[in-house]
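**User:** My hope is that you can spare some time for a protein that puzzles me. I have put the entry right below:
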Amino acid sequence: MCENIVSFTERLYSNRDFQYYLSYVDRKYWENKLINAIKDIGIDNLTDFNYATCFSLFVYPSDIGVKLSIGGRNFANYLAEHKVLNAVMIRISAIAPYSVIHYWKYEHADEGNKLTESAHSLDEFTQRVGEGIKDFLQQFDVKQIPEECLNIVVPDISLELKEENATIFNCLFEDNY
């Protein structure tokens, strides 16, 4: 599967620059659909097409009683009081029919909040939501990229930030150093 994704990405990037087109994409497109499809979730929409080519949605339990925004006051207060927050981070490529689901655990610490990322669900909520997202995206023919494929380098691709050794993740989701 990884070889197919590399080949697809090479073809996709041959002589194309997506940033202009992404400025016209509705950043709430998947947020609205997910809220209607999966029960009892809140979403912090982190989508930013400056260096990303994906929708980035932080999905947390809606029954916590407040709207969370990573880095916001409600987020900090929630962690200070409850010490832990398990959530799902979904990235859906805006340029290809692929997605990645990661499970995030935020823990409160006096020296700053700590984030741990996993490819596997962390609890009942993240398992239910992760499976719900996978089932939901199948309806749109959006495939999950296996974790082992994300760090494979796509030959001869140079991005704005990742000029050399751009990976599948960099090309389809987020350009970073």
About this structure: The mean pLDDT is 92.
